[in-house]
Amino acid sequence: MTLVRWNPIRDLATDLIDLQREINRMFDRFFRGFEEEEERAISTWRPVVDISETDDEYIVRAEIPGVSKDDIKVTIRDNMLTISGEKKQEKETKNENFHRVERVYGSFTRTFTLPGAVKVDKVEAKFKDGVLTIKLPKVEEAKSKEIEVKVG
Amino acid sequence: MLRDRAITKKSFTTYITPPADLYETQDSHMIFLDMPGVSKDDLNVKVIDNRLIVQGKFEIEKPKDSEVLFNEIEKGEYRREFILSGDVDRNKIEAKLVNGVLTLTLAKREESKEIEIKIN
What we know:
The structure holds two protein chains of two kinds. By secondary structure, chain A is an alpha+beta fold. Chain A has one helix spanning 8-31; strands at residues 35-36, 49-53, 57-63, 72-77, 80-87, 97-101, 106-113, 124-128, 131-137. A four-stranded antiparallel β-sheet of chain A has the order 1-7-5-4, with no helix packed on it. In chain A, strands 2-3-9-8 form a four-stranded antiparallel β-sheet, with no helix packed on it. The radius of gyration of chain A is 20 Å and the shape is flat. Chain A starts with 7 loop residues before the first helix and ends in a 15-residue tail after the last strand. Chain B is 4% helix and 51% strand. Chains A and B meet through helix 1, strand 2, strand 3 and strand 6 of A and strand 3, strand 4 and strand 7 of B.
């Protein structure tokens, strides 16, 4: 293994980015109805997600590189969406010398409480280039209605 | 071995550094990079002198009038540079992209492979 020179700027930059992410996450949790169950103790890593909402649906995107489609499980129960699976180390590297291992492996799970009811039978999930996209159409009642107020 | 220049002046502001695993076998070096969201067409792997440069773009389609609830995915462009050690055959670098993971296999040059010498 070669010695890599310590780069304080890089370490600092990484720390700052981590801190920024954590603060963003805190804000997300605080302000949004889309709540996440805390399961950090169980899983070793958590895929990062983007969740957005339109009038008709919720769109969940998760970065899960290195996991095959068949190793990802998406379930909805009691209005809770769970994404779980396992990222395995590449077979061919098991018996080799490593110089650097930065990627994370192991099982993961993330659970979110949906703020409104969704059409469970119409949920679509697709997996492409390591990104999982789940589209959850809202049921009619859960759609926000705009009521115009007429000023007489 | 392969040295890596994760942070260049440019990447400090613009690029995402994908995490990498580096392995060595008897006749090759292997690099695994997590680059979720990048398709084959948006990926660029090149060798300049002794530098191996990996760069990839990804686009996340955003529906109109959507409200963001969680925003954890870093957006932008991936880039990472590796400095090739002398034992790598520049012309024998293979790249494979599966499920968002780029696998690079860098074959070692014949003359730098380990040879066992028989003792008579």
